[in-house]
Every structure is written in C-alpha cells, then in structure tokens.
C-alpha cells in the first residue's frame, strides 16, 4: 500500500530538484550588482568565484517573479501604455573590462509624463518587504542596490527617468515610483566599481567575522577578514 505522506513529500522535492538541475548561475559581475556596497564581493563576483546554488524552492520564487513581471507588462500594455525592449542589452567598458546587463524594458505613455520614455524596472516581494518599502518612503531607501541598478541602465541607454514597479506577492498591490537619472553620481559609482575589480583584492565591508551581513554573503567561505 502506498504511503500518502511519502508521495506528498517526494513529489514537491522532485520539482525542486529539477529547478536545481537546470539552474545556470551568472559567473561574472553584471550591472544588476554594481550597487553592492562591498568592494570585495564585487571583486570575487567579477572573477567568477564559486557561489552556493540556491535551493529549488528559492529558484521557484525567482521564476514566479518572472511570471509576475510578464503579468504586469501585459496589464500595462492592456491599459494603453507601451512596454517594449525587454532584455535590451546595456554595456560599459573601461580599461579593457566590460560590465553588461539587460533591462526589463522601456515604458512610454505614463500618465505622470506621457512624452518621456522611462526605463521599466520590475521587482516582486513579500508583504513584509512591501510594507518596509512603504514605511521607508522611497525605492532607494528600501534597497540602495536596486537604485544603482536602474541608474546604470538609464545612463547606458541615455534615458533620464526610470519607472520602478514593485509587486506585492501577497495581495497584488503594485507600487510605482519615478526616479530621475543622477548622471554624475552614477558615473562616479561605476568608476568606483571598475576600480574595485581591476586590481588586487580590495578591503571588504564587514568589520568582523560575526558581522550579520556576512552570514548571507555568497563568498563568506573564501573571504578571510
């Protein structure tokens, strides 16, 4: 006689295993990570150091984020806005080093600025994270790394505004914020990133071994303070 408990336990595990089997991790630093505050993290990432593979459940969450992004784009287009150029490439090169990335899209016809094309950026989050965003009051205060990501994309594409959308996975509430390009600050930020990755290993941002952020770092095993 089949054991129902074993079936229920095994089938979801098989799904997760498939996600892990086909997962391909980006082995080099991309523009989506230029906002990371730790120069040593950037250095490790640029050189393709090994990182732990996310578990299947986490990978399914990533996939859900992609699905919800498609839903939001469809909803925006159906409402009369024009979202296009998804996965358009952005690239910066300095001293023989190239950093690149791809955008979620460009959106045109926003009610707030109908004549201005905006970078379209989409994130999903839990209800807890969404409430943190509302409490902090701005996209940058919520996640500085995400902020620099859109700044780099705007600079690379010659856009002056971004429209970021954050989707609450709990109740489908949609947050939108328009962000202006800060050209000078972004150029300086990118120069700092290139400087961090091109030479010897830079200093890290963690002050000690038991620092709380270190626990979640993909390179904690190779980063020796």
Task: Give your account of this protein's structure.
- Strands 1-4-5-6-7 form a 5-stranded mixed β-sheet, sandwiched between helices.
- Helix 6 (144-157) packs across helix 7 (183-198).
- It contains 7 helices and 7 strands, in the order H-H-H-E-E-E-E-E-H-H-H-E-E-H.
- A hairpin with a 5-residue loop joins strand 6 (161-168) and strand 7 (174-180).
- It has helices at 4-22, 39-46, 56-78, 127-136, 139-142, 144-157, 183-198; strands at residues 82-84, 89-94, 97-102, 105-108, 118-125, 161-168, 174-180.
- The mean pLDDT is 93.
- The chain has one domain: Lambda Exonuclease, Chain A.
- It has 225 residues and is α+β, with helices and mostly antiparallel strands.
Top CATH class: Alpha Beta
Count of strand segments: 7
Counting DSSP H or I runs of 4 or more residues, the number of helices is 7
- C-alpha-based Rg, rounded: 20 Å
Largest sheet: 5 strands, mixed
Mean pLDDT: 93
Structure classification: alpha+beta
What is the second-level CATH architecture? Alpha-Beta Complex
List the main descriptive attributes of the protein structure presented here.
alpha+beta, Lambda Exonuclease, Chain A, two-stranded antiparallel sheet, 7 helices
Entry summary:
The chain is α+β, with helices and mostly antiparallel strands and 225 residues long.
